[in-house]
Please model this.
Amino acid sequence: MIRADFPTLHIKGFTAVEIHYFAEKYNKSYETVLLELMQAGLAPRVRRKICRDKVDGDGWIEIHRTAHRLGLKLNCTMLYGTIEAGVERIEHLIKLRR
Model:
């Protein structure tokens, strides 16, 4: 495992958007995509094939729920400062907390 050989390395994994893309492209469930990536060790070959298509909020949450159920730890980011209102930021944070 990379972590064992390089304990101070910061590992940046796939985002929910990328997991959604893989699921759509290969007609697989989020769980299947995540399990296959876990088995493959998230190889660089796969990373080069990602797309910039976006997943909606519900799909993003479902990907994270599936990953958590499988024991994966994820981070969440929020792009803000464009056109969203304060209440929309709060709603986003409430959904993440749930």
The radius of gyration is 15 Å.
